[in-house]
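DATA SHEET
Item: assembly model
Revision: 1
Owner: S.N.
Input lines:
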Amino acid sequence: MQPLNPKSRFDQYGTKINRTHSPALAYGIPWVMIAFFSLTPVLPVIASAPVVPPLGFIAFLAWMVYRPGLLPFWAGIPLGLFDDMLSGQPIGSAVLLWSTTILAIEAVEARLPWRGFRQDWLTASVILAVYLICAAMIAGVLPTAPLLISIGLQLAVSVLIFPLMAKLVSLLDQFRLRRWKEVG
Amino acid sequence: MPVARAKRNTGFSRKAQVSVFAGYLVAVIAALVGAALLIISIWQPSAFSGLRSAAGDATSPAGNAGASVRNGSQDVLDAISGFYQAGRQNARLKEEVELARVKLAEAEAIKQENVELRDMLGVQQAMTEQPVAVGRLIGSSSSSVRRFAFLNVGRRDGVTTGMPVRAPKGLVGRVVETGYASSRILLLTDQNSVVPVRRATDDLIAFAEGNADGTLRIRPINVGMNTIKEGDVFVTSGAGGLFQPGIAVGVATQLYRDGAVARLLTNPAATRYVFVDSVWQPDAQKAPEELLDDVTANAEEVSPASADNTSGTE
């Protein structure tokens, strides 16, 4: 008799016998991770210019780009509100921009269903550039030259951080779908 | 199961078409909710202050832990760099100490003269008041173009909106929102921050406005002849009554035709503790009508015999 393939009852998330995904983890992890990265202002960095990339938004963007449809369409309201409470922007700024981002990513996703990493990175970079400029306009600052330079630097750092965030999202995605729960 | 991928290929299914359309509708409504919140918060900036200070209170323990790490790590870096520069630094410090002794003697003389002049004028004013509270900066709006910092003291410690915040080396900013155990500070470098200053050496009056990139813009009131030189130190002038006069603000580094760019004297990132002072002249902060009401009320209360004691600034 042909011996059974020892891997046949496993998938990449663990054994399929008597185990299934945990819904709390599967749906909760993106929310917790994005909210965690929205806590950037609590970092002990007392910056005198906008230098730290908007990590909460980058995490949100990475989940939206790599797992479209996982976060509901209204996710921008609670997550954006949480980001606004600490970020120093006027309240509503992130709610508006994050919800608009969902629409923009949906439009890209509908037109280009098969994409590679570089295309995703390009999409994210364009969205980040628009986000930083809109956020500065909403905050109502005068676009002086030094300020524009520091926003440019912030954008460069944000674009370079996106692949790292994408890697973190893919790791957490593996963890998210682990088969934890015992069935029966 | 959980990869709930949106199905866009609806085909002829009426139900699927409607549910995709409803999804987009939800996203548009979410964006409109954001726009509405934004309009409210720009129109009435204090509308959501409760929400923000609650978030500040909730996150301040984490910020406290982080702030102590920040101070610790700075010490380590200082120690290492100090080791390498010890010899050169020693020689330089000796020279500085000699200079400082001379300056100290001069300052003592000026202080004495100051006391005598004050006695002559009969001015009774405590120049060095006790700070309302001492706290730590535990975070800042490091990814926004606005410049706010979070402080780990709040209403519990007697901090109220408008109070100036200073570090040992100079002014840091002012309190704009208070929570129970945390407060939010508008740093000097925010574009909305304006501080009346004067040159330390004479009476050149100017405004120091934030540039949002870590520098200040000094705009003298007397436009025309710009007498500012590189290296001029600016201190608070006390105009407006919010900041006590004589707190160091910045040093001019780059000159323009109608002003100068100044570097902050106190780097908020390097300060271990900051002091929250009471508003210097609370009466000057009141609206004119309110002040007028006070004056008329006092006039009714005060009997003619004690009416000569009219100084409003205690």
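QC remark: Residues 100 and 138 of chain A are 14 Å apart (CA to CA).
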